[in-house]
Design a protein that fits this description.
2 domains, 179 residues, alpha+beta, endopeptidase fold (from Nostoc punctiforme)
Length: 179
Amino acid sequence: MIKKNIIHFFLIICSIFVLISCKSKKRALRNSNYQLEKPSNKTAAKYAEEMEVSKSDIKNGKLYEFIDDWEGTKYQFGGLSKSGIDCSGLVFLIYQDVYKKQIPRITSQQVEIIKRKFENQFKEGDLIFFDYDGKKFSHVGLYLQNGYYVHASTKRGVMIEKLQNPYTYKYFSRGGTVE
């Protein structure tokens, strides 16, 4: 009888230890992945004006400095450098460099990892997809705020654009949060 009680006690202690260690590991992973850094005054002012928001709304310095660094980089299918980048490559690098998270490199795979949202629910960092030339999910961008997103345009390179731009909005397909 005493032996059974000792075994039960031991199992309970082990279970508690496992539960505590799993919970702390999840918390550590969540906290270590991404740190929000304030942008410089110059960066905040530039993007606040461009997206028609207040300077205080520009909170993610890493994101906006990344965009500032890459803005104007020409489009190159399959490109992943300052000499040329494509839309999915831009989103891939933003997630890698800014959010410290690995996502697929290809648009058709990126659309598979989002939790869909309605347009009025989009938050900074959500992915948005377009169907150009009759091809589903042929283009991707990263939602910023106030209806603006960043993407690698085939004609103008890396740029910020209003989602409801009449020319591009008719091709808008879906968007959502990376899971």
